């Protein structure tokens, strides 16, 4: 039977369908005010209108640019910092306590400062995401690199590998699984920080669009953007995991 | 060197970079390279915190923020363990909630903030709701993983000795899953703090996030930096308390006896 996996998939995701139907019914039957919860079909129509007008795409692209740029910087700086800390004792003694001090800080507290420094545009969001996402990557890279096999390092050394060369060829690959795990945390954080900062102060982006539509009372459109953001975050995580599974295939 | 002396020396060595950073902040801010608006001196920020403490504002804001964060965290902890245990033990619960949890976990729930405001208004309830919504997912997944990881032999012997379902849950499954549940809580706590600060910034009013936003609107950068310092200290303290709680609760577990800290 060809349809069997499809049937299984349907059974597995039926609860989501049930929720969607409950949403539609609750609103259509006026169990809740359609103002507070517009019917899902109306939300879908509003979504198509937002796509057609180009608003969703332009705001979405500016959001993705901010998240992508901030995250890329965080991964490069955080990864380098973590590996550097793991391979040098003095660096670790100097920076370790600082990382430990700043790691538990709720990074959303930085939103007003980044605005103070760089204003309302892209710069402040990129800086926020960079600062907020760096430490999880640092800690992942540090733990991974610290756990890298001493014997591998010794044999690389004895075969005459230079220090930098060795870090790149031996330490980085063995740190990769934990580093990539740190990046996954950073990815989730980047969405949280992006949307929060755009909701609070922005003139563009997903968060701004949500706030703007809500203030205008176009709740169908607001729900459409909220769901778009939520599913973009979900999708980003799934795609990331698929990529990681491919990257780490050599470990099998 | 005695053990006590070594501990003091170790603590001093760890404190040194932090002291150096604070000193660098003060010197850099006073050097004139940046305006006091961009970076007020540490001493000016400390003065502002001291003033807020004197007129009591600081304690009201800390109290309100802590109340919202911890109330949400507590609800998420209890709800998450209950839901996780139900999903681990009951096929229907697992079927219904599994896709919801696996789709919901990676979503940025903060995007739902305007919806929650629309439904629940602007005071404590929507803020606590947002905290629960965000903090519950790691607790649920940790509980499921913890219970799934309990050794079958442990279950069989408890059954053999006549344990009923309820006893099995309370005396075998949950204690054996406790390390992972606590890890889930340790992930959830910082999330609760991030979310509470954002909701306070968005809605204003009392609380550390609201106070920071107020200061930012009046271009009062001292107030903004005071807020960062206060929130950072609260975050650090709560995470430290959680780690201490873990060591205490898991005193019986081999993790603690091996001396592996988190």
List the helices and strands and how they pair.
The complex is a heterodimer of chains A (252) and B (262).
Chain A lengths: L3 H25 L11 H14 L1 H33 L1 H14 L8 H8 L3 H25 L3 H9 L4 H38 L5 H11 L2 H29 L5
Helix pairs in contact in A: 2-10, 3-4, 3-6, 3-8, 3-9, 5-6, 6-8, 7-8, 8-9, 8-10, 9-10
Chain B lengths: L2 H28 L11 H13 L2 H33 L1 H14 L8 H8 L3 H25 L3 H9 L4 H39 L4 H10 L3 H29 L4 H4 L5
Helix pairs in contact in B: 2-10, 3-4, 3-6, 3-8, 5-6, 6-8, 8-9, 8-10, 9-10
- The structural domain count of chain A equals 1
Distance between the termini of chain B: 27 Å
List how many beta strands of chain A DSSP finds: 0
Q: Helical region count of chain A?
A: 10
Please compute the radius of gyration of chain A using only Cα atoms.
Answer: 23 Å
- Please tell me the CATH architecture of chain A by its name: Orthogonal Bundle
Order of helices and strands of chain B: HHHHHHHHHHH
Instruction: Report the sheet-strand fraction of chain B.
Output: under 5%
Annotation field: number of helices of chain B: 11
Q: What's the end-to-end separation of chain A, in Å?
A: 32 Å
Largest interface: A-B, 54 and 57 residues
Q: Low-confidence runs of chain A (pLDDT<50, min 5 residues)?
A: none
Strand proportion of chain A: under 5%
Radius of gyration of chain B: 23 Å
Using brief descriptors, characterize the structure shown.
heterodimer; A: 252 residues; mainly alpha; MetI-like fold; 82% helix; globular; B: 262 residues; 2 domains; 11 helices; flat
Question: How would you characterize this protein structure?
Answer:
The complex is a heterodimer of chains A (252) and B (262). Chain A contains 10 helices and no strands. Chain A starts with a helix and ends in a 5-residue tail after the last helix. The mean pLDDT of chain A is 87. Chain A has 252 residues and is mostly helical. Chain A has one domain (59-251): MetI-like (MetI-like fold, Orthogonal Bundle). Chain A has helices spanning 4-28, 40-53, 55-87, 89-102, 111-118, 122-146, 150-158, 163-200, 206-216, 219-247. Chain A is globular and about 75 Å long. In chain A, helix 8 (163-200) packs antiparallel against helix 10. Chain B is mainly alpha-helical and 262 residues long. Chain B has 2 domains: 1-31; 39-257, MetI-like fold, CATH 1.10.3720. Chain B is 81% helix and 0% strand. Chain B has helices at residues 3-30, 42-54, 57-89, 91-104, 113-120, 124-148, 152-160, 165-203, 208-217, 221-249, 254-257. In chain B, helix 2 (42-54) crosses helix 10 (221-249). The mean pLDDT of chain B is 88. Classes of the chains: A mainly alpha (252), B mainly alpha (262).
